[in-house]
Amino acid sequence: MSKYDSYFLMGVEDAADYVKEKLPSFQKGAVLSCQEIGDGNLNYVFRVKDARTGTTVIVKQAGEETRISREMKLSTDRGRIESRILRLQAQSAPGMVPAVYLYDSVMCAMLMEDMDGHTMMRTGLMNHEIYPMFGEQITNFLVNSLLDSTDVVMDHKAKKERVREFINPDLCEISENLVYGEPYVDYNHRNNVFPPNAEFVEREIYQDKELRLEAAKLKFEFMNHAQALIHGDLHTGSIFINQEHLFVFDPEFAFYGPMGYDVGNVIANLFFAWCNGDAVIEGEEEREKFCGWVKQTIEEIVDKFIIKFKKAFMERVTDIMAKTEGFLDYYLDSVLSDTAAAAGLESIRRIVGMANVKDITAIADERKRVRAERIILTLAKDYVKNRSSFKCGKDYLEAIEKAVSQFG
């Protein structure tokens, strides 16, 4: 009988023994070391290494409560969802997600490929690294992983079964609260607002009735629009990258929702990097190079997504009515509107909500942080309120320039 026959939270020594027991390649003569490497809010992540061969593997275990609040209880079934979607995404976007070796439903743990040689993208961006291939790579991932999971492409019955398989109520509830509710009405009293911006947030977010109404509309679209199997939390902390390659990982928030949610999250988090670079980089030439690349990449992502989406749609569409002239433009317009909305919602919740973003909180100069947050919130309101007008990358650049100009 194994000690892993019933659930418990593993520590470093447990994780090493677990790998030795579960993976035959690590059993005979393995000399294992282990370190905890996770810095997220929900899970426990360990890297186990065989000293003889240098081979590494990642152990990721789901806890029954979040690491930021013991009051926030979660179903450990999210680990199953994550392992399943990684395998599906590996089929649609080969090589762009880490391989899953095993999922253990008892320990709620996954053994997966170590993304060695890659850096968490948020860390790289905060070091002001430039990734010239990112726009091309992430749009390949987005178009392929999202479109293939829709009923425009899939058999309708198979898609409905997939929707049922990925019902994810606990993680969806977190998004519904942290993204669509609390930043506008602090009903759980856990928003984390930077004190020098408290009056600005009160006036521009909490008291903006039009913004709150739009957020309410978007919340119920998010809850009821089972369009595609989305990652659900696709920020720069969910991407490991180097100059040639990237991995998308951590899709435990996955469920069937509006595909623009993933695209918009990428755009919002890139702009956080712009704000950090604008505030922190001292040399004008270096600052202009990095910040210019970020804006160029935002434009590139939107425009390449549109081009690749149209091409993939025409090649893969199976539904007879979806082939109707004009339907593609109608369908894509809704995705682009959702993209702008999601970029705005993600921007607001990372400044006003309980889960702030490091790109901004790391800005040590109070005056510069105040300015960065006000730019983000102003831009976000434009995204949300005028979401149907964001049709191409240029629209995003013009909105960014407009927001930045308001604060010198």
From TrEMBL:
Its EC number is 2.7.1.100. GO terms for biological process: methionine biosynthetic process. Pfam families: APH. It is an enzyme of class 2 (transferase). The keyword Nucleus does not apply. Belongs to the methylthioribose kinase family. This is S-methyl-5-thioribose kinase. It comes from Qiania dongpingensis. The lineage of its organism: Bacteria, Bacillati, Bacillota, Clostridia, Lachnospirales.
